Amino acid sequence: MSHSAQHNQKNLYIKTWGCQMNVYDSHRIADVVKPLGYKLSDTPEGADMIVLNTCHIREKATEKVFSELGRLREYKEKREAETGRRALIGVAGCVAQAEGDIITQRAPYVDFVLGPQTYHLLPETIISLTGDRPEKRVINTDFPVENKFDHLPEEHDSQGAAAFLSIQEGCDKFCTFCVVPYTRGAEYSRTVQSILDEANKLVDNGAKEINVLGQNVNAFHGVGLDGGTADLPDLLYALSDINGLERIRYTTSHPRDMDDRLIQAHADLKKLMPFLHLPIQSGSDKILEAMNRKHTADHYRDILAKLKKARPDIAMSSDIIVGFPGESDQDFEDTMQIVRDSEYVSCYSFKYSPRPGTPAAAMQNLVREDVKTERLARLQALISEQQYDFNKTFLGKTIPVLFDRVGKDSGKSEGFIQGRSEYFHAVHVKGSERLVGQIVDVEVTETRPSSLSGNIVTGEFASDLKTAVG
Ligand code: SAH
Ligand code: SF4
Ligand code: F3S
């Protein structure tokens, strides 16, 4: 960082919607502009630059961006009137990619629009907006030939004890309801070497858990250390050798790419957590076909059976869409059945929302809104019941928890820290901040529908209880 940049510190605020890959991108956006003197702040107040890192997956996600932009306009005008300083407002992420033009029409005060593959160009963008002959606005939503991962800074700020690492981007699957192949572009996998370098840096910066990310993470096929092609199991075995890295997860997988070697990795690798997000979308073969998922419900059941054999304590999580065009009562019952059969302990469920430009948006046989609402409510009640039943099985058990933040417990925040179980439960205990960043044994004393709480039992740390209480 140059001397003058240090003196000229500016505040950056980033608001993030959408998937974990967007969360990763937001960290990287902060890393990219750090050399220009921008420091991440957790409030928009006083910000010199505000970036909305957006999601286009459902209609509501897009509308939220426009209402946020409305508020930011007031902030920008007020700040300029009061201090004479311009606040840069930018839109990044998947709405930027899909609706760059609409954004600048509806919100002409937006200074820049950068897609998910061009945010490494942010320094140049800022310079052209603020230089001697400033541009009024910069829009860059190309899919550049050179890859952003080759241009992101090697240095990055700590993500804390549990970190995200994008290893694969884009999607070639073209499910008929989904915008991702259009907003993120074609599948691309990073090299194993660059991933291992980044993983080692994250561990040096305090990460005990790494969640490797991709829109289609188990389709990963990057250049391996020997110059050949490496797949996800190859990468997982390599990551598992990193000293100090204790937990590995991967998100999000497609059933079609769940091959036997990947399943075997769950048997072999103790660091691979026994919790897997493997979206099914629907339990009806007719709907799965209309969605272009290219697998059946029974194919999915076979995968689960193999996973259970490899790792008997594995628990599953999923995504489900209700009310896809043509979904009958029976199709929906098939979905309820696969939720029971898969014993999902966590599941995101959504009403189908037509997205412009996707094949499903042109389909007939739309499901009525009230039917969607009713189906979603029934599905969510079943999921909550399964989730709570699963959580109750932890009562009285001692489990390892990775503490990653100072937290709250039922509204009480004094002296509480928060972490994650191997199954991704939020776990709250009374304990000192010193435990943040550590994996510590906890005896579960209370179970709730979506979290657990308990007491620290590990000898060395049990004394910390006194510190926290007293
Ligand atoms: N790559 C992941 C999903 C990414 S999108 C996969 O293949 O499963 C995250 C979730 O949003 C999807 O799993 C799906 O359940 C939901 N989703 C995507 N498009 C949607 C739409 N048009 N309407 C409702 N939900 C949608
Ligand atoms: Fe979207 Fe399907 Fe690709 Fe997942 S696999 S990102 S749902 S197109
Ligand atoms: Fe949303 Fe884009 Fe992720 S549409 S879910 S932010 S890939």
* CATH architecture annotation name of the largest domain: 3-Layer(aba) Sandwich
Radius of gyration: 23 Å
**Domain module tally:** 4
**Class based on secondary structure composition and strand pairing:** alpha/beta
Count the E strands: 21
Major sheet attributes = 6 strands, parallel
Would you identify the regions where 5 or more consecutive residues have pLDDT less than 50?
A: 1-6, 466-470
Question: What's the overall average pLDDT, rounded?
Answer: 93
Number of helices: 15
In whole angstroms, the N-to-C terminal distance is 43 Å
Concise overview:
The protein is built from 15 helices and 21 strands. It is an alpha/beta fold and 470 residues long. The protein folds into four domains: 3-140, Methylthiotransferase, N-terminal domain (Rossmann fold, 3-Layer(aba) Sandwich); 154-273, Transcription Regulator spoIIAA (2-Layer Sandwich); 284-392, Transcription Regulator spoIIAA; 398-462, OB fold (Dihydrolipoamide Acetyltransferase, E2P).
Topology:
Blueprint: H1 3-7, E1 10-16, H2 20-33, E2 38-40, E3 49-54, H3 59-83, E4 88-92, H4 93-106, E5 112-114, H5 122-130, E6 138-140, E7 162-166, E8 168-169, H6 180-183, E9 188-189, H7 192-204, E10 209-213, E11 221-223, E12 229-231, H8 232-240, E13 247-251, H9 260-268, E14 275-277, H10 285-290, H11 297-310, E15 315-322, H12 329-342, E16 346-351, H13 369-392, E17 398-406, E18 416-420, E19 426-430, E20 439-447, E21 451-456, H14 459-462, H15 464-469
Parallel strand pairs: 1-2, 1-3, 3-4, 4-5, 5-6, 7-10, 10-13, 14-15, 15-16, 19-21
Antiparallel strand pairs: 8-9, 11-12, 17-18, 17-20, 18-19, 20-21
Helix pairs in contact: 9-11, 12-13
The site of S-adenosyl-L-homocysteine has 17 residues, from strand 15.
